[in-house]
Design a protein that fits this description.
With 200 residues, the protein is mostly helical. Helices cover 64% and strands 3% of the residues. A two-stranded antiparallel ribbon has the order 1-2. Helix 3 packs across helix 4 and helix 7 packs across helix 8. The longest helix has 33 residues. It is elongated. The structure holds a DNA duplex (21 and 21 nucleotides).
Length: 200
Amino acid sequence: MDKRTCDSQDVEVRKGPWTMEEDLILINYIANHGEGVWNSLARSAGLKRTGKSCRLRWLNYLRPDVRRGNITPEEQLLIMELHAKWGNRWSKIAKHLPGRTDNEIKNFWRTRIQKHIKQAENMNRLSSNISEHNNIQQASTSQTSTNLADSIETYSGNNNNNNNNNNMGTTFHHQGNFPNENIWSMEDLWSIQLLNDANN
DNA sequence: AATAGGGTCAACCGCGTTCTT
DNA sequence: TAAGAACGCGGTTGACCCTAT
């Protein structure tokens, strides 16, 4: 099978960040026709995007039940628990965190947890080296989890302070050198959508 | 004030699986 | 049953932002 022709039909395919217009088209189309059959959806809606891209945009961002904002400490613990159980099965883990997407959890794990695990491991290595020198046996696993828990707690506190940096919450700060390079929120998009519906 | 480096996250890519014909 | 199409997942990338220097 030729993967190149899988999603596109040799028509111009747009890539990169989605514009507000594209978002509106997608929301509007799905509101009227429902989701699924993404390739034909992309074509029918007049979007110069692959079905894959539309699906991803919808699932990770436009769906009304997508929860945005900081991962709570409870969610962090759950993620850690489930990851310990299932490994990198992000979509499986995401199913247990309502409103969270696999992409979000994956990013969270890679950027936050993994970093702290590494730090904890380094500390552990360091402490075990010291232990060897001092002939003191350390319980490494409990130490690691304590360090990790501490790190995560530290992260939670810091993250609140960083809230205004990444514009999470409900507001999306659109980035990139594309037209419509502005700031809009999901509330904006959905209210426009509702207006469209009212006019139809 | 400039900029290098690191963090974050949306989006893309490749591939395995499932569905359809 | 086979082949093609679509879906779904996990890994990776690239652009932007923030902070430290």
